Amino acid sequence: MGPNPKMRKEFFDSTRSSPFPDEVLERVLSLLKSHKDRSAVSLVCKDWYNAESWSRAHVFIGNCYSVSPEIVARRFPRVKSVTLKGKPRFSDFNLVPENWGADVHPWLVVFAAKYPFLEELRLKRMAVSDESLEFLAINFPNFKVLSLLSCDGFSTDGLAAIATHCKNLTQLDIHENGIDDKSGSWLSCFPENFTSLEVLNFANLNTDVNFDALERLVSRCKSLKVLKASKSISLEHLQRLLVCAPQLIELGTGSLMPELTACQYAQLENAFNQLKNLSTLSGLWEASAPYLPVLYPACTNLTFLNLSYAFLQSHELESLLCQCPHLRRLWVLDTVGDKGLEAVGSNCPLLEELRVFPADPFDEEVIHGVTEAGFLAVSYGCRRLHYVLYFCRQMTNAAVATIVQNCPDFTHFRLCIMNPGQPDYVTNEPMDEAFGAVVRTCTKLQRLSVSGLLTDLTFEYIGQYAKNLETLSVAFAGSSDRGMQCMLEGCPKLRKLEIRDCPFGNAALLSGLEKYESMRSLWMSACNVTMNGCRLLAREMPRLNVEVMKDDGSDDSQADKVYVYRSVVGPRRDAPPCVLTLSGL
Amino acid sequence: MSSIPKEHDYIGLSEAPSMEKISDKLSSSSSTLSTEENINSKSSSTSLNLKETELRLGLPGSQSPERKLILPAAGVSLFGKDIDTNSTNGYPLGPLKNLVSGVKRGFSDAIVGSSGKWVFSGSNGSEVDLGKGAILFSPRGDNGNSQKSCVAGPAKKDDVAQSPKPVLEKNSQVAAANENSSAPAAKAQVVGWPPIRSFRKNTMASSLVKNNEDVEGKSGYGCLYVKVSMDGAPYLRKVDLKTYNNYLDLSSALEKMFSCFTIGQCGSHGLRGQDGLTESRLKDILHGSEYVLTYEDKDGDWMLVGDVPWDMFTDSCRRLRIMKGSEAIGLAPRAMEKCKNRN
C-alpha cells in the first residue's frame, strides 16, 4: 500500500494541522498503553504531543523528584491513574535515613485540585502519613485503587480512613510496608453496604483483624478476585473465607500452623477443592508439612507459587510441585536446598521466573542453603527461565556459564553470593567470567545484579556486551575507576546504576557526565568519591540534582552516599538536614 | 583398627547392660546394635541413677510405650516392615501421613520403658535384617573403620566392630568437620547486606524464633539459648536449654526439630522400603547418616553430649552440633586425622 501522495503533501504542509481531526488522533493514541511508546509518540510533532497529552490516562513517574506535580498536571489534564516512586532502592536495605523525603502529600494536594476524579494511585518507596491517607480518602470520590509497596510513615489508622470513606474502592494492596500496625479494627470500617472490592491484600499486617467483619466483607464482595490474608488468619478462618469466595484467582493464606481436627482438615481440603480458578498462591506462613496436601486440589492451574515465607524441605517442595504442572513463577526459601531445586528442574518445564531467598541470611554459621548445583539443576530443566533472583553462599564461573548456555533468554539476572567479595570457590578466581558469560550470552538482559569477587574485567564485559541493560546493581566489586568507566561508556540503555562499597572515585564519577542525563539515577555509597568530585559534577551538569549524605564521623571530604538524578525542577526544597544538595550555581 | 572387642560405656560402666550411649547408636562404624537382651530388658534400676548422664539417641524401639511415632506414608525409612503403614508395632499412624517424625536414621530417639534407654526397634540386633524390622544405625561388620566412631556400648557378643577407644578422651575431640565453623568471632554485619527487605528480614527472624518456641518454656533463670546445627541441614535452630530438664527432653526436642532433615536425606537415597534394600545399599546410606550429638563447652572443646550431669552440661554448653558420625572426631586420634583428611 503506497503512501497517498495527496495526503503526504498535506501532511508535510506545515501550515495545515494534522489530516486527522484531533479527536480521532486522540482516540487512536488512547489505545497506547506503554508509557515508553507514548513518550515516543509525543515527540513526533506538536499535534501529536497535544493529542498524546490529552489522551493519557495513566502517568508513571519513576522518580518523584524528577518533576513536580504541577508540571505533571499541566501537561496531562485527564489523568485517572498515577504510579509514583520515591526513595532510592537502597532505602529498602536501610541505607537511606528515614526522613529522607519522598512525601506523597504535596502530590495529593495538587491532584485534589487538578485530578479530582483520580481513580488509582500506586506508590512505591514513598513516605505516606495517616493524614495523607485520610486526605486521599476524602478528596477523591471516584477513588478505586490504592497500592502501597515498600512505603512507610503510616499506620492502620490510615487504612481505616480509606476503608471508611472510599465508597468505590476496588483494590487495596498493602505490601511490604513499614506500617505501624496498631490494631486490626480498620477492616471493620468498610461499610456494610460496601461491595465493590476486587483485590484485598493485607498480608503485611500482624495484628488480628475482626474475623467476622472480614468474613462478611468477603461474602458480600462477589467480585473479589484477590485475597491475601495476614498471618493472623488461622486455617479455620481460611476455610470459612474460601467457602465464601470460591471465585478467587489469587490467594494468600494466613498461618498454616497445625491446629485442625481431622474433621476440620477435611473441610479445609474441600474448600481448596472449590478453588478451580486459582492462579496465584502465597502466604503459607509457617507452612508445615502436614497441611500442605490440603492445598493440592487448588494447584492445578497455578502459575505463580510464592513459598518464600514457608520453611519447606526438598521433599515437601517436590510433592507440591508435582501438583502444579503450569507453574511459571516460583519463589522459595533456600531451606529446600539443592535437592529442592532439582525437583524444580524436574517438575516445572514452563518455569519463567525463580526467586530463591535465604532463610537465615545473617547467620554466618549456616552451612548450606543452596549452591551452584541447585541453580544448574533448574537451568537444565527450565529452559524458559528468564528471571532469576538467587541468594547463595557459593558459586563457580563454570556453573554460571553453563546456566546461561541452557537459558540464554535471561532478562533479569540477579545473583547474590552472600559473602562479599567471594571468589569462585573451586578455582579461587574472581567471578568475572561468570558475568562475562551472562552478558555475552543473554542479549536480552535488562537487569543485572553482580556479586562475588569481581575485577574491572567484569565491567569491561558489561560495557562491551550488555546492550540492552537498563538496571545494574554492583556491590563490593571492581578494582579501579576503570570499572565504573566501562559501565558508563558502554551500556547504551542504562537507566539506573546503583553501586556500593566499590573502589570507584571521582574520575569514575566524572566520566559519566553526559550519561547521567539519559539515566533516571545513580547511587554510589561507600566508594571513594569526595565532596569536591560531587561539586564538580554539580557544576558541570546543572540539570542534575547531586545529593550527598554523610555518615557519622566520616572525613569531611568524603562523600559517603551520593545520589544523582536528572530533574526538570532543580534541587528539591524538602531535603532534610542530613541531605546536602550541591548546586552548580 | 579395632582392637578391643569389648565395649565400654564412657563413664566406665562397662558391665551395665542397659547403658547405651548415644555414641553407640550413632557412630557409623561401630555397629552398636543392641542385642536382643538389651532391647527386651526393661530397665535395670542400676541404670537409673546414671540416667542423668545418659543421652541416648537411638532408633525408635517397638517397645516404647511413650512414643507415638508417625510414619511417612511413602517409604523413607530403613525400617523394613515398619514402613507398612498398618504396622502395629507401636507406630500408630495419624491422619497426618506426611508428617515424619521420630522415624529417622538420625540421632533420635525412642525411649524404651523406664530406663530412658533408646534402643533399636526390632529384636534382632545382631543382624542387619530388615525383614524383621530391625532398625539399624550402623552398618555391621564394618570392621576396619571403627576409629571413626565414638563410644561403645555394653559388651556385645557379636560381630560388631567396636570403636577402639572409649569416650574418655573427649578432650581430643575437635570435630574435623568443625573446622570450617571454628569459633567465628561475631563478624560485624555489613549494613544492608545481603540485600533483603526489612519486611522479609523481620518476618524470617520472628518465624525462626517462633519455631523454636515449640517446646514449653519454663520460667526460671532466664533463657539459655544455644544454637543447634546439624550437618547437612540448611539452617540452624536455636534452643533454650533452660526449658529442658534432662538429656531426654533435649533429645526429643532436637529430634522433632531436625527430623525433616534426616528424612529428606533418607528420601534422597531413594530408599523405598524393605523391598530391594540390600545390605550394601544400606551400608552406603548409613555411612553418611549416623549422627552424633556434640556440644562446644566453655573452653571451646567439643564434647559428646551426655558425659556430664545435666546441670553441668547446661552451664557449660555454648553450642550444639549434630554431626555425622563419620565425621565425628570420635575420640580416637586416628579418627580425627581421618576426618581432617576428608576435609
UniProtKB/TrEMBL annotation, chain A:
SUPFAM superfamilies: F-box domain, L domain-like, RNI-like. The keyword Oxidoreductase does not apply. The keyword Glycosyltransferase does not apply. SMART domains: FBOX (SM00256), LRR_CC (SM00367). It comes from the Eukaryota. Residues 20-61 form the F-box domain. Keywords: Auxin signaling pathway. This is F-box domain-containing protein. InterPro entries: COI1_F-box (IPR041567), F-box-like_dom_sf (IPR036047), F-box_dom (IPR001810), Leu-rich_rpt (IPR001611), Leu-rich_rpt_Cys-con_subtyp (IPR006553), LRR_dom_sf (IPR032675), Transp_inhibit (IPR041101). It comes from Salix suchowensis.
UniProtKB/TrEMBL annotation, chain B:
It comes from the Eukaryota. Keywords: Auxin signaling pathway, Nucleus, Repressor, Transcription, Transcription regulation. It is found in: Nucleus. PANTHER family: AUXIN-RESPONSIVE PROTEIN, AUXIN-RESPONSIVE PROTEIN IAA17. Aux/IAA proteins are short-lived transcriptional factors that function as repressors of early auxin response genes at low auxin concentrations. Repression is thought to result from the interaction with auxin response factors (ARFs), proteins that bind to the auxin-responsive promoter element (AuxRE). Formation of heterodimers with ARF proteins may alter their ability to modulate early auxin response genes expression. Homodimers and heterodimers. This is Auxin-responsive protein.
